[in-house]
């Protein structure tokens, strides 16, 4: 019993000695880290306001601001560790070995990060552009370090890992798209009359852009009809609606003007 009391007394004495020796240093270290956290946020807000004037891409702004905040916090953390008397060189060496192991285990994630940085800095497309990539297409809704999100007119989204984008063939439509509508007319039709009717339809549709000018031309001689290509430009959000509206309006205009849209026929001879 006496030995137990002596051991408890010794432990208490050691704890008190450690508290007296390291307590103030620990308290100062905590204060330094807390101050560094708030300082990082303050510096980050200043950097964000400064970057806003440069009109950079939103993902690039976020990355730079996060790096600034992390750098400030890391600086204050180093100050806190030095205050505690921690040897930084062995710690850095240990972190380097651990970092190598983590890098090997997360090759896919790091590949996405490097690809994301490539996309952000080379800027092959921007948020709001309509792109086609790796068999998918849509409007770019978000670009992050890991993924690029495409949105569709049916309100669905496609999340593509960035490593699947870099190095692939990319079709960037920008913010406008060109419709590709084809309608056939009979061979004895006055083509000037046809082109004038189509032009009237396009000028009446508010979704059709004046610049670039719509392309309307006879582009192919089919077996039973002359194919007329109707290729106006519209804003990306109007693509689906404009396609249906123009097709319907062309058919109705042709009916009003007496322009015949021939039906494909196949002649079969029995001998």
Task: Provide the descriptors you would attach to this structure in a database record.
SH3 type barrels; Helix Hairpins; 6 helices; alpha+beta; 271 residues; 10 strands; single chain
Structure, described:
By secondary structure, the chain is an alpha+beta fold. It folds into three domains: 2-86, Helix Hairpins, CATH 1.10.287; 124-174, SH3 type barrels (Roll); 176-257, Alpha-Beta Plaits (2-Layer Sandwich). 54% of the residues lie in helices and 18% in strands. A hairpin with a 3-residue loop joins strand 2 (136-143) and strand 3. The protein is built from six helices and ten strands, in the order H-H-H-H-E-E-E-E-E-E-E-H-E-E-E-H. The protein starts with a helix and ends in a 14-residue tail after the last helix. Helix 1 packs antiparallel against helix 2 and helix 5 (191-204) crosses helix 6 (239-257). The protein has helices at 2-52, 58-84, 88-105, 107-122, 191-204, 239-257; strands at 130-133, 136-143, 147-151, 157-161, 171-174, 176-178, 181-185, 215-221, 226-231, 233-235. The mean pLDDT is 79. Strands 4-3-2-1-5 form a five-stranded antiparallel β-sheet, with helices on one face. A three-stranded antiparallel β-sheet has the order 7-9-8, covered by helices on one side. The chain is elongated and about 105 Å long.
């Amino acid at each position: 019993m006496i030995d137990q009391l002596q051991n408890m007394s010794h432990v208490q004495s050691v704890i008190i000695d450690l508290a007296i020796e390291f307590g103030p240093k620990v308290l100062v270290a905590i204060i330094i880290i807390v101050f560094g956290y708030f300082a990082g946020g303050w510096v980050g807000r200043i950097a964000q306001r400064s970057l806003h004037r440069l009109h950079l891409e939103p993902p690039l702004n976020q990355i730079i601001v996060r790096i600034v905040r992390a750098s400030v916090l890391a600086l204050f953390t180093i100050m806190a560790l030095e205050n505690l008397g921690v040897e930084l060189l062995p710690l850095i060496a240990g972190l380097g070995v651990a970092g190598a192991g983590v890098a090997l285990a997360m090759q896919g994630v790091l590949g996405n990060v490097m690809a994301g940085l490539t996309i952000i800095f080379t800027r092959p497309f921007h948020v709001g552009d309509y792109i086609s990539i790796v068999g998918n297409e849509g409007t770019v809704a978000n670009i992050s370090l890991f993924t690029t999100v495409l949105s569709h007119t049916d309100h669905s989204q496609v999340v593509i890992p960035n490593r699947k984008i870099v190095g692939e063939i990319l079709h960037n439509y920008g913010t406008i798209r060109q419709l590709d509508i084809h309608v056939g007319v009979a061979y004895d039709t006055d083509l000037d009359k046809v082109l004038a009717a189509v032009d009237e339809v396009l000028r009446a549709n508010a979704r059709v852009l004046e610049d670039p000018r719509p392309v309307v031309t006879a582009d192919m001689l089919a077996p039973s009809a002359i194919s007329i290509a109707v290729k106006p430009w519209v804003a990306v959000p109007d693509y689906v609606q404009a396609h249906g509206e123009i097709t319907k309006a062309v058919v109705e205009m042709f009916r009003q003007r007496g322009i015949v849209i021939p039906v494909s026929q196949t002649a079969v001879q029995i001998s």
